[in-house]
Design brief:
- The chain has 60 residues and is of the alpha+beta class.
- It has a domain of 36 residues.
- Helix content is 27%, strand content 13%.
- Strands 2-1-3 form a 3-stranded antiparallel β-sheet, with no helix packed on it.
- The longest helix is centred in the last third of the chain and has 12 residues.
- The mean pLDDT is 87.
Length: 60
């Protein structure tokens, strides 16, 4: 499932902050807009266990 909300792909170069849109192009600069959703969870991720352990250690 993909998000309908998109963000300007080159917002770091053209804008002070992220510009969000529902269209395929940025309304401010006319550049391409990309999906703003994070990557989906992958149960076959070989390093996921290590990343989660690091997060737990950082919280403590």
């Amino acid at each position: 499932m993909k998000s309908d909300i998109r963000v300007c792909a080159s917002w770091r170069e053209h804008h002070d902050r992220p510009v969000y849109t529902l269209t395929a192009t940025c309304p401010a600069c006319g550049g391409d807009a990309v999906n703003s959703a994070p990557a989906p969870y992958d149960p076959t991720d070989r390093y996921g266990e290590y990343r989660r352990a690091l997060k737990r250690r950082a919280r403590q």
